[in-house]
Specification:
Blueprint lengths: L10 H23 L6 E5 L5 H10 L3 E6 L2 H10 L6 E5 L12 E7 L8 H11 E12 L9 H9 L15 H10 L3 E14 L2 H9 L5 H5 L3 H14 L7 E13 L2
Parallel strand pairs: 1-2, 1-4, 2-3, 4-5
Antiparallel strand pairs: 5-7, 6-7
Helix pairs in contact: 1-2, 5-9
Length: about 260
């Protein structure tokens, strides 16, 4: 069942849990998006700044407005970029962005759309913020297609009779739903795609701890009976065919972009 109470407040634990994954997918996403240098960017739900940092490093923006509802995430984000980076960090709600109409050239959501309670409103806000001819784009884990980096843990939780928490708008993460949202917002030249990534871990415990020690996933594990936690860890290890050495885990994200007329 969907649960809209998932929160990300610890930038450091998020970096280990998801920030590194976000950069892996973001590299390919930005390469495919091919935005021109000097563009004005809007980064909606910037989290701890992992993707924002990529925009600065790869796209030579003239300015980036980066919004997130979590002060803790923003505090971490501010620490990862130089003080003279062309980024303005601020608290903001994806459905009520404090930005002027048409003030940006590119508006993006990185691993955010499925957390927006009303995805269509979030897409409409990005459309409002870009000028005509501007780009509205997003990438999000293929949650329902097994592309989430922690899909193995979720699948084994279900086998033990426990339903993992899901983002409130998980249905928006499919390619079909994303296309419907972008076309419904009146965007043109809508393109969808997928990016597959791999993350290398020192071993199974490195992978497990990236989730189990995070402030987000830890409460889910702690809510399980002790014997089920032991069973879950063993089952995930077996599912990933993890031995005693390094481990590589794959993930898949759906991408979408469109142009404002």
């Amino acid at each position: 069942m969907a649960d809209d109470t998932i929160r990300f407040d610890d930038g450091a634990s998020y970096e280990i849990l998801m920030g590194r994954w976000s950069r892996l997918a973001g590299e390919q996403f930005l390469q495919d998006l091919a935005a021109p240098p000097g563009a004005r960017w809007l980064d909606v739900g910037c989290g701890n700044g992992a993707f924002t940092e990529l925009i600065v490093q790869r796209c030579s923006p003239s300015a980036v407005l980066a919004f997130d509802p979590s002060p803790g995430q923003l505090a971490y984000a501010r620490s990862r970029l130089a003080a003279d980076a062309p980024v303005t960090w601020a608290e903001g709600d994806a459905m009520r962005l404090p930005v002027a109409d048409g003030g940006c050239d590119v508006a993006v959501m990185a691993l955010v759309l499925f957390f927006v309670p009303e995805p269509a409103v979030g897409v409409a806000e990005m459309c409002r913020a870009v000028q005509p001819g501007g780009t509205v784009a997003s990438y999000h884990w293929d949650m329902l297609g097994g592309g989430f980096p922690l899909a193995a843990i979720g699948a084994e939780m279900l086998k033990l009779g426990h339903t993992p928490r899901m983002p409130p708008s998980v249905g928006a993460s499919t390619l079909e739903a994303s296309r419907a949202l972008w076309e419904g917002a009146g965007l043109q030249q809508v393109r969808t795609g997928q990016v597959s990534v791999e993350r290398h871990f020192a071993g199974f415990d490195d992978y497990w701890n990236s989730a189990a020690l995070s402030s987000t996933f830890r409460p889910m594990l702690e809510a399980l009976p002790a014997d089920h936690r032991v069973q879950l860890k063993a089952a995930v290890r077996e599912r990933l065919q993890a031995g005693d050495g390094p481990l590589t885990v794959g993930a898949r994200a759906n991408t979408i972009s469109g142009v404002k007329r």
